Amino acid sequence: MDRPSLTLGIEEEYLVVDRETRDLVRSPDPGFLDLCSQTLGDRVTPEYLQCQVEVGTRPHASVPEAIAELTDLRRAVAEAAEAFGYAPIAASTHPFAKWREQTHTRKARYDALREDLGHPVRRMLICGCHVHVGVEDDDLRIDLMNQAAYFLPHLLALSCSSPFWEGEDTGLASYRLTVFDALPRTGLPDPLASWSEYRRLTEHLVASGCIEDATRIWWDVRPSDKFPTLEQRVTDVCSRVRDAAAVAAVWQSLLGFLLRLRTRNQRWRVYPATLVNENRWRAQRYGAEAKLVDHGRRRLAPFADLVEEILELTLSDAETLGCRAELLHARRIAAEGDSAARQRAAYARARREGADDREALREVVDGLIAEFRED
């Protein structure tokens, strides 16, 4: 078996806000997306809701190369938005916008989703970040998916950016997952023995008339149906591009580490979904401030300690892959907090300075606009 390429590509979804009101732009001027497309071509696409836009990088050999392109994509979207009085934010929920006020993009696929999924899909006012890593061998892709599922909560905790929903603090660091988990075929993947078993599963659903194709399986990690990649989908979209770089570096380096174990005839233990889901919930609830279960020791451990363990496991792989600096930034997120923590801090600061609730939430949006452009 040839060693997989471990190339990576990053997809991000953004919300488009009105610079004056800081609310979402319900129906952006068609010229906005046209202007984005003139600069970015097929690297930018509309999303389910008209107030959203998605970008995707080309495949790259290293995280720094992918992040350089992602930075250019963010810059181009921000410049196009500015021409229309808009601004993009990279947050998985808007602090105060109402989902009932949004309009979905008229596209056959989206129309079919609305008809098939009903009310839950209307609430999908959420954005995520997906990181693809090239694993060309089909069976290896499934084997790595089974093992890597253990680390999905850790990735989520690094990325949380959705504490507010319709003007309320939800008490969660990632409310996005609460919304997304209302859809079918989400959450952790089934442990599977081989690519053939995965194909039998997907073909069963297709033959039964439940789904059109495997793209309708929205697990937290899945084999991409379009590319020979293993795609992690659990993470919120990061407000700052350097935090997105850390998420990408952790994902790529973890897969490099699992491959290195394989060369020693070793593997990471596959834990029951209930145990991994416990950490998924704790990451969703507390983000980078979480204590997650160290399942090997059967105890709760501060997330910062678990990040140190991940760094110890993967640092040599990150050096080989050329993303050492980006991987080490995970330590800073664990120490200083994620976007959810910064959003709450901005809200609390504005209230202390005399702002009312609505004004404080607008301050949160202003912070997100600034973070989108700061790198």
Automatic annotation (TrEMBL):
InterPro entries (alphabetical): GCL_type2/YbdK_subfam (IPR050141), GCS2 (IPR006336), Gln_synth/guanido_kin_cat_dom (IPR014746), YbdK (IPR011793)
Molecular function per GO: ATP binding; glutamate-cysteine ligase activity
GO biological process, one term: modified amino acid biosynthetic process
A Pfam family that the UniProt record links to this protein: GCS2
Database matches in SUPFAM superfamilies: Glutamine synthetase/guanido kinase (SSF55931)
Record EC number: 6.3.2.2
Keyword Nucleotide-binding: yes
Catalytic activity from the UniProt record: L-cysteine + L-glutamate + ATP = gamma-L-glutamyl-L-cysteine + ADP + phosphate + H(+)
Keywords on record: ATP-binding, Ligase, Nucleotide-binding
Function of the molecule: ATP-dependent carboxylate-amine ligase which exhibits weak glutamate--cysteine ligase activity.
Family: Belongs to the glutamate--cysteine ligase type 2 family. YbdK subfamily.
Stated name of the protein: Putative glutamate--cysteine ligase 2
